[in-house]
Amino acid sequence: MAPRWLRRRKQGRPGTLRTADNTDAKDLEEFALSRTGVEGFVEPRTTVTDTTLLLVAIDGEWTRRRVKDPAWAHEFANKLGVPSYDAAVVGYPARMREWNRRKSAEQKRLDVPDDLSGS
């Protein structure tokens, strides 16, 4: 069976935005409850994407999902005891950027062959 993200892309017409659904809320809740120090960053709707909620754990690991609207995102975060901020106002935490750098470096190390000598 295809991964969930691939199945979602096949739904609807090409070029149309997928709206938030219960799976998105469930994924966000699962992330928030399984990590420590989680904060929420509500990202405004753009011409390309709907409103999203970005959750960032204390170690910088993050996930992003579509949400109904900013009010829903803040209420959802408050229900889980997760502080939430408007990303357009406060920006993103440095720990998230550092996590991305670490993951990128790890991936590059994995892509390099063990024996570079060619013998």
What does this molecule look like?
The protein has 119 residues and is an alpha+beta fold. Strands 3-2-1-4 form a four-stranded mixed β-sheet. 19% of the residues are buried. The chain has one domain (19-111). Strand 1 and strand 2 (52-56) form a beta hairpin. The protein is 45% helix and 15% strand. It contains five helices and four strands.
- How many discrete structural domains? 1
Beta-sheet strand percentage?
Answer: 15-25%
Choose one word for the global shape.
Answer: globular
Order of strands, main sheet, comes to 3-2-1-4
| Spatial separation of the terminal alpha carbons | 41 Å
Number of strands: 4
| Uncertain stretches of 5 or more adjacent residues | none
- The number of helices is 5
State the helical fraction: 40-55%
By secondary-structure content and strand pairing, the structural class works out as: alpha+beta
Q: Indicate the mean pLDDT.
A: 85
Q: Biggest sheet: strands, sense, closure?
A: 4 strands, mixed
**Radius of gyration (Å):** 17 Å
Helix/strand order: HHEEEHEHH
Summary?
With 119 residues, the chain is an alpha+beta fold. It is built from 5 helices and 4 strands.
